[in-house]
Amino acid sequence: MAFSASSELHQSHQQKIKQVFDEVAKVVVGQNYMVNRLLVGLFTNGHVLLEGVPGLAKTLTISTLAKVLHLDFQRIQFTPDLLPADLIGTMIYNQKDGKFEVKKGPIFANIILADEINRSPAKVQSALLEAMQEKQVTIGETTFKLDRPFLVLATQNPVDQEGTYPLPEAQVDRFLMKVFVNYPTKEEELEIMRRISNMQFGYEVNTMLTKEDIFSIRDGVNKVKISESLEKYIIELVTATRKPKEYKLDHEAQYIQFGASPRASINLNLSAKAVAYMEGRDYVLPEDIKEVALDVMNHRILLNYEAEADNVKTADIVKALLQKVPISK
User: Fold this and answer.
1) Does any domain span residue 1?
2) 114: closest CA among 48, 56, 165, 170?
3) Spatial CB neighbours of 4, under 8 Å, sequence gap ≥ 6
């Protein structure tokens, strides 16, 4: 079943989205999964947290995507000495006029790359996350609306690395997804090595989606249908993280300290719709929910020290959920 009234528009969107991947691939080898998740965030008005060791092209991918989307882009390197004013802006005194003026910070852009967000202290993290939630910033006595679309793509190094400040759970929960960025395959790394050794970099990329396209795609995502049984399935999945024993997850229950918040249900729904739309459907399948379940829930399930001792990861818990929680009829 395809879109009826707007099928032509939807096909046009699909083609443009495919071209986005092709353009990014001119610069970045591999990382299609990361690009897919960044687009899901963009099309659902959600922010994305990327975690991985340095050198996996996280920054390059995001900056290239911004060029392909022709959106204002700002990269902010988070450091231990960064101040909230360095992020949102401040009031400066104009000696000529004898008045204070607003000097806006780098947060006034469409795509913000918050690089190594967990290297900055809590006040700076809080300033960024407040802007993410409220979509506005207050400088002095004036409140400024942030440009639309406004998307924060934050990268963080694994928290066991030296000089990192783990993000509080309540703040991490504001991200639509937490995506783990993996090492390239052997073939991809060979291509990366050849490109760099042959000085093949600095490719020009073309704009494939405009702001109007993005807002139109968001409207299309909102119109994607999801059945009542799949809505209940999402609720069951999230509830199982809070009451695992009721779902015969006795083994996993010993490792869960806190289950996922209601934001997990909301974001599972939104992300599954976005995946369905990008796949060319106007309805959600169970596979769409399962595809995004890990990225949506892996930062919302808080594990205890026993899990760390037994080397149990959130991915193991989510995998068990998907195997044991049935889809309602």
Assistant:
1) no
2) 48
3) none
